[in-house]
């Protein structure tokens, strides 16, 4: 029988807000935010401005070229990064990587799962010729960020939730809602609000388990939900998420998964997943 | 099955699963090329970070059974083969089957 471990929702929400104000926030994000405050600034001008700072340049390039982001190829300039990702995705990437910093080893499977879903999201977007594929990649990387927050901010409570989900066979997000009063997708939405990430990134993060409730950006939600399903099906679920639940028919309504596409996808993702199987954050240094 | 390996793990005799191209997209080494020490050195000089190689080792019966069981467990709630979950399960089981060695 599951213990009810209700966390005070508004108190927890306040803790999320405090995270945004942590002094450990990398200069990178602060500088980035300052520079893009000017709504009239062009990508070109932004690129030039950011490139003036050697430290920013090297940190950003290291990040976009890291195995964490998994971009196929090499991005050699800030301007190139801005063209490929756009500043919402770039901002999202900076935020994700800083939240994932200082991860405890128990959360490594979650870290790898997020990388895998990011890779899968990009592949799906590519195969379906969707625009802004790097935004899909970043959404994939961010989709379970709420779980990371729970690990960090409420480790004992979250442990109890994961244990109960595992032993009862109930989907994790449902168990979270029951035992905590909210789930990791909701926390993901709070993070997006806190950091002013736009709806096109926030909605796939917030609705990847409740696909049919998304009012907008349904295609994006479908891509991340599909990526999550495929990755978990291939064995890279994070703890508590090992048994799959039936998917929402909306995924197939939104995405033309015609003959062989699933097979193709699995075939291409397989080697990527093999290569991140033993990856640890220290490898990123 | 295809594996992605860092250049440091490359060994003579490994077979490329995907072609290797230079920065401008020109193919240097086709898929199916067997690696030689010479090639590996050249890739290192080019600062190639990783490559995709073919891993044709068949799965043992034990490994096959264990992996099959894992898939069944993950897809335990899926009863309809034509649902998305059902299709995915079929794809994964088929791939596993193809990686099995002959008895």
Structural features, described:
The complex is a heterodimer of chains A (285) and B (103). Chain A has helices at 9-20, 27-35, 43-51, 54-64, 78-99, 108-127, 133-142, 145-153, 155-168, 172-180, 184-194, 199-207, 218-233, 250-254, 261-276. Chain A is mostly helical and 285 residues long. Chain A has two domains: 23-97, no CATH class; 105-279, Hypothetical protein af1432 (Orthogonal Bundle), CATH 1.10.3210. In chain A, helix 7 (133-142) packs across helix 12 and helix 8 (145-153) packs across helix 11 (184-194). The radius of gyration of chain A is 18 Å and the shape is globular. Chain B has helices spanning 37-45, 61-74, 84-98; strands at residues 2-6, 20-21, 27-29, 50-54. By secondary structure, chain B is an alpha+beta fold. Chain B is elongated. At the A-B interface, helix 13 and helix 15 of A face strand 1, helix 2 and helix 3 of B.
Strand order of the largest sheet of chain B: 1-4
Low-confidence stretches of chain A: none
- Give the DSSP E fraction of chain B (strand runs of 2 or more residues): 5-15%
* CATH architecture term of the largest domain in chain A: Orthogonal Bundle
* Overall helicity of chain B: 25-40%
CATH A-level architecture of the largest domain in chain B: Alpha-Beta Complex
Shape label of chain A: globular
The helix count of chain B comes to: 3
The profile of the biggest β sheet of chain B is: 2 strands, antiparallel
Question: What is the string of SSEs of chain B from the N terminus onward?
Answer: EEEHEHH
| CATH-assigned homologous superfamily of the largest domain in chain B | Molybdopterin biosynthesis moea protein, domain 2
> In total, how many domains does the architecture of chain A comprise?
2
Secondary-structure-based class of chain A equals mainly alpha
In terms of DSSP E residues, the strand content of chain A is under 5%
CATH homologous superfamily annotation of the largest domain in chain A? Hypothetical protein af1432
């Amino acid at each position: 029988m599951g213990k009810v471990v209700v966390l005070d929702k508004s108190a927890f929400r306040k803790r999320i807000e405090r995270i945004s104000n942590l002094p450990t926030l990398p200069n990178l994000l602060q500088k980035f935010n300052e520079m893009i405050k000017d709504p009239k600034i062009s990508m070109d001008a932004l690129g030039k401005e950011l490139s003036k700072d050697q430290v920013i340049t090297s940190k950003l390039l290291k990040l976009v070229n890291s195995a964490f982001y998994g971009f196929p190829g090499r991005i050699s300039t800030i301007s190139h990064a801005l063209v490929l990702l756009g500043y919402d995705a770039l901002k999202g990437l900076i935020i994700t990587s800083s939240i994932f910093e200082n991860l405890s080893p128990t959360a490594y499977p979650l870290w790898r799962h997020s990388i895998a879903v990011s890779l899968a999201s990009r592949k799906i977007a590519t195969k379906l010729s969707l625009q802004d594929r790097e935004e899909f990649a970043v959404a994939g990387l961010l989709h379970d960020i709420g779980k990371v927050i729970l690990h960090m901010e409420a480790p004992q409570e979250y442990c109890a939730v994961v244990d109960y989900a595992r032993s009862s066979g109930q989907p994790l997000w449902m168990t979270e809602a029951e035992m905590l009063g909210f789930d990791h997708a909701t926390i993901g939405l709070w993070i997006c609000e806190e950091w002013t990430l736009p709806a096109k990134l926030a909605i796939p993060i917030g609705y990847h388990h409740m696909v049919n409730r998304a009012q907008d950006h349904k295609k994006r939600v479908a891509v991340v939900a599909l990526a999550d399903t495929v990755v978990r099906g291939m064995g890279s679920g994070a703890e508590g998420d090992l048994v799959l639940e039936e998917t929402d028919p909306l995924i197939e309504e939104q995405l033309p998964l015609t003959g062989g596409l699933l097979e193709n996808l699995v075939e291409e993702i397989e080697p990527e997943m093999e290569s991140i199987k033993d990856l640890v954050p220290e490898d990123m240094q | 099955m295809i594996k992605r390996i860092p250049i440091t793990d490359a060994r003579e005799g490994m077979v490329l699963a995907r072609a290797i191209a230079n920065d401008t997209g020109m193919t240097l080494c086709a898929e199916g090329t067997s690696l030689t020490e010479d090639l590996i050195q050249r890739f290192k000089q080019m600062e190639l970070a990783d490559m995709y190689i073919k891993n044709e080792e068949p799965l043992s019966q034990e490994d096959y059974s264990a992996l099959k069981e894992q898939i069944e467990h993950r897809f335990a709630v899926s009863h309809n083969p034509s649902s998305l979950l059902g299709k995915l399960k079929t794809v994964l089981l088929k791939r596993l089957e193809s990686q099995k060695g002959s008895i």
